[in-house]
Write a structure and sequence with these properties.
- Helix 3 packs across helix 9 (157-180), helix 3 packs across helix 10 (191-210) and helix 7 (124-139) crosses helix 9 (157-180).
- This protein has helices at 5-22, 26-38, 40-61, 68-74, 78-91, 94-110, 124-139, 143-151, 157-180, 191-210, 217-243.
- 76% of the residues lie in helices and 0% in strands.
- By secondary structure, it is mainly α.
- The radius of gyration is 17 Å and the shape is globular.
- The protein starts with a helix and ends with a helix.
């Protein structure tokens, strides 16, 4: 595994901070950095394990704000969706997967900001859970794609962060289960980097809750988009180079 350890530590810390402050964007940032550092085939299962910890840390911090009616509907199709996504993942070579993921990361930068318009019916969250777990097995992080649904659920900021953490945590847990069983991925081989980055995630969550909540939203948004553009562009460039297109 070729990994830039300082880059992983910094990126993991920033992703946890971002997730704790905004409940959105941190998972994509972490996945982009992992993919650029170690390749997408390894980044997807490693990202899943780290995101279980990241979401769990936010659940602990915001546990009193969880909206359980949304959660109970969301989790119904998570395991079937992850299983189907795993079948697709196993059939894709790394170059094609890299192109898909790079485009998805760049696309997340240009998605219009989610708005609270008409409140969405809770019954749709079962479908959203299945779709998110399916896509998560292929493109890694799908938080920005699902954000509009959570914003239209009529949740306050704290309830949105808490509820989204539970829902995304179940998606990532399903991913870990599928990778470790159906796809025979050995997480034990990477226990050292997982343990190290778990500590970084806990510190980042604490920092996001206690320190960086006052960062101006405009500066925060610019920084996140810049990192995602660079990381997504690098993934696409490397994939094109492997095809001899660059």
């Amino acid at each position: 595994m070729t990994v830039s350890l300082p880059l992983l530590i910094i990126g993991t810390f920033l992703s946890a901070v971002i997730s704790a402050v905004a409940g959105l964007g941190g998972g994509v940032l972490l996945f982009a950095i992992l993919s650029a550092s170690m390749g997408v085939k390894l980044a997807i299962p490693i990202h899943g394990a780290l995101q279980v910890i990241s979401n769990l840390s936010r659940i602990v911090v915001y546990r009193q704000h969880i909206d359980w009616p949304v959660v109970t509907r969301f989790v119904i199709l998570v395991i079937p969706g992850a299983w189907l996504g795993g079948r697709v993942f196993a059939s894709l070579n790394e170059q094609i997967l890299s192109l898909i993921i790079g485009v998805a990361i760049l696309g997340s930068v240009f998605l219009p900001p989610p708005k609270k318009k008409d409140k969405i019916d809770l019954k749709w969250f079962s479908l959203f859970g299945g779709i998110s777990s399916f896509l998560s097995m292929i493109v890694g992080a799908v938080g920005p794609l699902l954000a509009p649904a959570f914003y239209r659920a009529g949740l306050s900021k704290e309830r949105l962060v808490a509820t989204k953490a539970v829902c995304q945590g179940t998606v990532q847990l399903a991913k870990v289960i599928i990778f470790s069983t159906t796809l025979s991925f050995s997480y034990a081989e990477y226990w050292q980097i997982l343990l190290l980055l778990t500590g970084v995630i806990v510190l980042g969550t604490w920092a996001g809750k206690k320190v960086l909540g006052k960062m101006p939203d405009r500066h925060f948004d610019w920084f996140l988009k810049a990192v995602l553009l660079i990381a997504g562009g690098k993934i696409i460039w490397d994939a094109c180079a492997s095809f001899g297109w660059s």
